[in-house]
Amino acid sequence: MDIDIARLLESAELIHEKSGASLCRVTHAGQSMVLKLFASGPEATEVRAYELLQSLRVPTARGAYQLLIRLDREQTITVGKLGTFRFPAGCYVYTGSAMNGIEARVRRHLSNRKRIRWHVDFLLEHARIIRYAIRESSVREECELNARTLALPGASVPVKGFGSSDCRCVSHLVYFAHEPDI
Ligand SMILES: [Zn+2]
């Protein structure tokens, strides 16, 4: 998904502004979304970085989610008791589920201040979420979603057992050298 940031900014409506970052409501692909800008405001001519966040309508929704994570530089990261691994630069798709409030879970992942709890938290200490998707469902679908991601061209498993302690999947983290089209 290519994002025309200049075009998005034309329709941006400022919601919240604080030092270094501002949140705007924008319409992208027919959907109302939240654009997080790391600049002085929507009028800023130079946007340093941005995140496009899907607005979440149902606060208590449950289901599966996927985080598209970018790691700019290769890093060696210790993932709790799982071990220490080399993470090549590129994109990672993490698939998880929250059967008890998916919005809260994703917000937690997006937050910079949190207690390290899940495997993905260790990776997110060094990387950033550039996009996420949510699929509301009353049944667990994360493994199926994860399997479909792993079947995409260019997909590989970077670390066995990552995020998959509770299921039979090899890993719930999938690596792509280039941003996948999901
Ligand atoms: Zn699984």
N- to C-terminal separation? 8 Å
Instruction: Give the SSE order as H and E letters.
Output: HEEEEEEEEHHEHE
Class by SSE composition? alpha+beta
Please mark out the parts with pLDDT under 50 across 5 or more consecutive residues, or reply none. none
- Number of helices in the DSSP assignment: 4
Proportion in β-strands: 35-45%
Total beta strands:
10
Topology:
Blueprint (H helix, E strand, L loop, with lengths): L4 H6 L2 E6 L2 E8 L2 E7 L12 E5 L8 E9 L3 E5 L3 E5 L2 E9 L3 H9 L8 H6 L3 E9 L5 H9 L22 E4 L6
Antiparallel strand pairs: 1-2, 2-3, 3-4, 5-8, 5-9, 6-7, 8-10
The chain binds zinc ion (ZN).
The site of zinc ion (ZN) has 7 residues, from helix 4.
Brief write-up:
The chain has 182 residues and is of the alpha+beta class.
Distinctive features:
182 residues; alpha+beta; four-stranded antiparallel sheet; 4 helices; 37% strand; globular; binds zinc ion
